[in-house]
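worker-03 picked up job from queue 'complexes'. Input manifest follows; two sequence lines, order preserved.
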Amino acid sequence: MTAAVLDPAVVEGLVAQSASLLTLDNFWLSALLKILLCTVMLMVVSLVGGYLEHKAMAHLQNRNGPMEAGWHGSLQLVADGIKFIQKEDIVPQAADRLVFAVAPGVALVPVLLGFLVIPLGPGVWAEDLELGLFYALAIGSIGVLGILMGGWASANKFSLMGGIRAAAQLIAYELPLILAAAAVAIQAGSLSLVDIVESQATMKIFGTVSMWFVFPQLLGFAIFVTAALAELSRPPFDMPIADSELVFGYMTEYTGIKFAMFLLTEYGGMVFMSALISVLYLGGWQPLPGVGLPGCEAVGGIADCGALGTLLGVGITLGKIMAIIFFMVWLRVAYPRLREDQLQKISWLVLIPLSLANIVVVAIGKVAL
Amino acid sequence: MSITTPTKAPFGVGLLKGLGVTLKFLFKKPATVQYPHVKPDLPPRTRGVIALFDENCTVCMLCARECPDWCIYIDSHKEKLPAQKEGGRERTRNALDRFAIDFALCMYCGICVDVCPFDALFWSPEFEYSEYDINGLLHEKERLREWADTVPPPPALDDGADSPAEVADAIAAKENELEAAHAKSEQAEQAEEAAGDDAPPKTKPAAKTGTNVADMHVEGAGEQIDQAVYDEQIAAGKSERMARAKAKAAWVRAQKKAKLAEQEASGGDGGGDEPAADAGASTDAPPKQALADVHVEGAGEIDQAVYDEQIAAGKSERMARAKAKAAWVRAQKQKQLDDEEGGDA
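worker-03 finished. Artifact:
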């Protein structure tokens, strides 16, 4: 019976292919390190991204942003977290208590799990699944369930509207996101994120010019970034939490640590999507198109780059993630929120046809060139 | 009439412009002032808090009645002042017991400052008086008086503007006083001299002729001015009004003097035995001239020592100059007198 549930090919696809540096002989130690990697990505890198959002947004708006907690307000989010923990945990009387309590976790855990397949540097990843891209996109769409649960269980019209809007938005933008990513998979010839990074290292257009996937697939890149913004409910696609219409959408009734978990989901989602964008289109840990990391020419495989190359690779990936987060913040500062019907129109009438056309062009190019 | 349609930029240009506008600010210094660490650069007449000079308050209650928020509380009692003259009536006066402004209610409209007819309420630029307890925002008389020390002085007058009437009056009064004091001291010196010499007191020509200077009528008074005095006053930085008044007065004085001299000359011709008496007296005693009669060249120079002394004593520059001038003239007169005496001896 169990064999019938999972297709053997899928089961095979979920098996790691390239071993990471964290894979050790001791299973438990190895598992602990991998969990630590995902947790650090969620708890530390997300907070750095959040700090970047605070400061970049402030300076783009002629302000200073947080200045008091720590050096130039660098500990502001830590202070916020401590504050949230101390807050009273209020549950509305009419709320579905169990669902209300579980919803933030359902939203947060998929982000944590998503970091499992993100390659940060040569050998620095938790698992390199053969279906890595598929896994990343699939696990990312579970988050909407938590949002919908929170919106419904709050027993609040604003929460419900926010939750429904979020669900409609995520369904609408899942399609262009996946179709754009499919074009990348076609060009790379693999669904493994590590393979996709590697194929960008070796890719040469017309056999001479080295480049990342962003150049031949500029349209796909634009579609993916737009859809990612909508997936994250980031401005200008933040209708699910539109302050002026819905108070704070599905988060309206949440307080304290539960609210903090929703916020962490947003920042973690930003880091996750930025990491995905940098892996799919911007060459992952490679410093420049056609330029590899120092020490990676060794014969020991891609996981063997030496300490310097590995650290440099991780740094470059994190830098790219922060640059993309800055871009997201920049858009947030510059653009007003779209209307709900415009949002749906952009997805169904513009992005999905374009992404289908993108797949066709990329497929033809892949076969012809 | 032709309708011009605005030229529409191609799609996306507006979006890029928006990004450009925001990006520009990333490279600018933020406008934020880190307030508790950096004090804000406020205009000098910022309306921060209302200050009270309670010594100026007459409890007229205008401020309390005009206050739209009713946040001014005033209590007072009447006091009897003793009569100023013997047999006069006692006067009553309002004494301020309580003057409080509740800054929790105040909306900083400033109407109380505007309506105060006795210069008791002023705006102060101080603004850091926030409190943890709302009761602390009720500032009583003493606290309001402390704010008064932070009120900036009134703005300087424009160049060439008339000095305020009160100030001009005060200056004129002081000058009159000085002149009177000077005349008195000269008279005293004269009397002393006369007494010391046992000489018959030298009567003033005016007294001799029996014509009081004050009673003399001068034609053209009020129209003619002494141009030299006028120029001098203007050069000394006096207002045009002041200079004109002084110059007029100087002209009248000069005219009167001239008339007096004429009268004296004619009187001398008539029954001139006084000079003879003078001459007789001079034979008895060594000839001595009264100080007042000695003419000193260059009057207007100052005695630097006296001037410095006055300045050091905290006197105003004007005052010190006047005293120093007087001292110099006195000294010169004395010197001339001594010279003459020495020559005689």
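worker-03 released lock.
The mean pLDDT of chain A is 83.
Residues 117 and 127 of chain A are 5 Å apart (CA to CA).
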